[in-house]
Amino acid sequence: MPNKKTKSKSNSNGKHSRNGSRPSTAHGAADEGVRPSVASADLRTYTIPDTRLEHPNYTVKQVIGGKNKNDKDGVEHVRYEVSGDLDAPVPPIRDSKYLSQQQAIEIYRYMLLNRKMETALENLYKQGKVVGGVYFGLGQEACSCASAYALDQDDWFAPMIRNQGSLLVRGFRASDTMMQYMAKAGSPTKGRDGTSHFGDIEKRNMVSPISMLGDLIPVMSGVALGARLQGRNIAVLTFIGDGGQSTGVTYEGINFAAVQNLGLVLVVESNEWAYSTPSEMQYRCKDLAERAMGYGIPGVIVDGTDACQVYDAAHEAVERAHRGEGPTMIEAKMMRMKGHAIHDAAAYVPKALFDFWKKRDPIARFENYLVREKKWLTGKENAELISEVERVIEEEREIAVNSPMPTPESAEGGVYCEEGCHAIKPKYGMPKVKKGTSGYKETEAAVHLK
Prior knowledge:
Elements: H1 27-31, E1 58-64, E2 78-84, H2 101-126, H3 141-149, E3 156-158, H4 164-169, H5 174-182, H6 216-229, E4 236-241, H7 248-260, E5 264-270, E6 273-274, E7 277-278, E8 299-303, H8 307-322, E9 328-333, H9 351-358, H10 362-373, H11 379-402, H12 444-449
Parallel strand pairs: 3-4, 4-5, 5-9, 8-9
Antiparallel strand pairs: 1-2, 6-7
Helix pairs in contact: 2-3, 2-10, 2-11, 3-8, 5-11, 6-7
């Protein structure tokens, strides 16, 4: 006789709550007639704080067809459509728990500098003065500037291509970025690079951007580890986009920082699009901050267009790092308001989506907050501040335009290691050695670097 089929037990797969908590009863316990205690040691619950005052309610989906189903070559026309509540009112700025009046105005000024510098860069590109392309952080100024502002002087950071505002906060001039894009002799790389691949590990504690997305995360974790070997707990800030957040090295870098309890502050710029791919087609989880659970580290969600929310989350993450409490993941939700780069017109983005986020312009919102709500700036003072920023940007633009192109013979410089060019020495103190040892044994690599 054939075996009698037994009814399979229901599978709990996919029925866990989004915050990572387990069901209140387990099959095994229920079968034995035992109700598990809420205080049971194996019950794990997680929360992802969300400081936003708005949770946009819309969906982007891919559609094929319509009036222009096929293009001129007969290929099916694919486009994206957005549906949902796109007329929701703009939320107010959330008051910061930490920022003073002066600090808030300083962040606002950096955001203005960021915006005006990129406008100048766009004009230089259109005038044919830029070598290569230009990458913009339009709509992401609050995220770049407020997060970098939360760092102490001894902390380190590594920006990505849209975080040019963080460079201004850490002491770089607008002309540095402009000359870099123009490949001028006065640029930080002396004309050897046409984008933002430059850093300053001597004075500003900045690691150069890396084009391979995610690779900055293990590098910055290594910086934090090096500082700890020298007796210091520092914060190391870097960024990753929603697309780059899915790369393998991102996982490896965060996991290393978590296991080693290093002070990594990772800002996930959840800006709706990974080049031309919308978030809905990139990942299944509702919020990228949920991925922090898998590493056993705190995650938090903020409104990336609200400078106060970004600063507060970054400030608390930096303080955690200084106390030696390990990494933090901050998901900043916002919209990339231009294409991937200046060559990309972003025609794939539904216009209604641009219109929705344009009303949430981080600079316009912060200006309204400072002038009308808090009254920390009068209308006259605000106009004077904007005028001063425009004057500074014009002066910086002139410096960049008048800087000469590098001479042909200068191309041979920096190709090979020259005397003292890679001298490596401890920044915060000598690494601790075990008692009874005279010091670290020099390896071949150490001798070469010396």
